Amino acid sequence: TEMKMHLLLCLLVSFCCSLSSAQDSDVSKPAASDKDSSSAGELESLKAKVEALENLMKKVSICMFFCNFLHKASTKVIFSVAVGEEGVIGPVDTNTTLIYERVLTNIGDAYNTSSGIFTAPVAGVYYFTFFYHAGGEYDSKLVLYKNHELVVLTQDHPSKSDTADNGGNAVFLQLQQGDQMFVKMEYDTHVYGSDYHTTFSGFLVTQM
Ligand SMILES: *[C@@H]1O[C@H](CO)[C@@H](O)[C@H](O)[C@H]1NC(C)=O
Ligand SMILES: *[C@@H]1O[C@H](CO)[C@@H](O)[C@H](O)[C@H]1NC(C)=O
């Protein structure tokens, strides 16, 4: 809704721009009423009209450029979520999307708390980071996916002596509108879920 507001504002601004340029440039002036005017005169007035139209088009396109710029600069997508389920999650028997249920920040509503999936609302460069905590008795492996394509991961092998694991990873990614990002827990691995330990965050760095 915030984006729609910006777009509406932009349209209003360009409408006003084009109105004022229309007044400046006499596009709306009626053609000479003198039926006896020479064809040279008609040609002159036609030329003037074309020039005025060209000026108007230039002004409109400048307005549109600034609108677009303002709109892009004002689009904000920022999220941070935590697993929110207290205790050990896993080991799972298939690769499973980790659902982060506790929302810390979700500006732009691009992260879905039921599916665990972030969907890019606009094309651009995004930054993602994910951290986990786990006990050391099983493997831990979290994989960041972009539309089912592995991007980066974080992993720790089981160990009897090392009783607590912490890991994470981060990446800058260029996404198209609609691209989906999510974290999968690999089969036979586990993480420790809580309101604080295991998190997934991301934000739109710049639109492209
Ligand atoms: C599970 O994920 C791993 C990458 O973490 C991948 O190599 C493997 O093929 C996946 N297995 C299945 C059954 O999708
Ligand atoms: C969030 O994900 C759930 C489960 O996949 C789906 O039913 C729902 O429509 C999604 N919500 C939005 C706003 O896309």
> What is the CATH architecture descriptor of the largest domain?
Sandwich
- Kindly report how far apart the N and C termini lie: 21 Å
Name of the CATH class of the largest domain: Mainly Beta
What small molecules accompany the polymer chains?
2-acetamido-2-deoxy-beta-D-glucopyranose
What's the alpha carbon Rg, rounded to whole Å?
Answer: 28 Å
* Average pLDDT figure: 87
Strand order of the largest sheet: 4-1-12-6-9
Structural class: alpha+beta
| CATH-defined fold name of the largest domain | Jelly Rolls
The share of residues in extended strands comes to 35-45%
Q: How many DSSP E strands?
A: 12
Give the helix level as a range of percent. Answer: 25-40%
SSE pattern, N- to C-terminal: HHEEEEEEEEEEEE
Q: Spans of 5+ residues with little confidence (pLDDT < 50)? A: none
Instruction: Outline the biggest β-sheet.
Output: 5 strands, antiparallel
Overall geometry comes to rod-shaped
Kindly give the count of domains: 2
- Count every helix, treating DSSP H or I runs of 4 or more residues as helices: 2
What does this structure look like?
- It is a single chain.
- The radius of gyration is 28 Å and the shape is rod-shaped.
- A 5-stranded antiparallel β-sheet has the order 4-1-12-6-9, with no helix packed on it. Strands 3, 5, 7, 8 and 10 form a 5-stranded antiparallel β-sheet that branches. Strands 2-11 form a two-stranded antiparallel sheet.
- Helix 1 runs antiparallel to helix 2.
- It contains 2 helices and 12 strands.
- The model has no long low-confidence stretch (mean pLDDT 87).
- The chain is of the alpha+beta class and 208 residues long.
- The relative contact order is 0.19.
- The chain has 2 domains: 2-74; 78-207, Jelly Rolls, CATH 2.60.120.
- The structure holds 2-acetamido-2-deoxy-beta-D-glucopyranose (2 copies).
- One 2-acetamido-2-deoxy-beta-D-glucopyranose binds at residues 95, 143, 150, 186.
- Pfam families: C1q.
- It comes from Nothobranchius furzeri (Turquoise killifish).
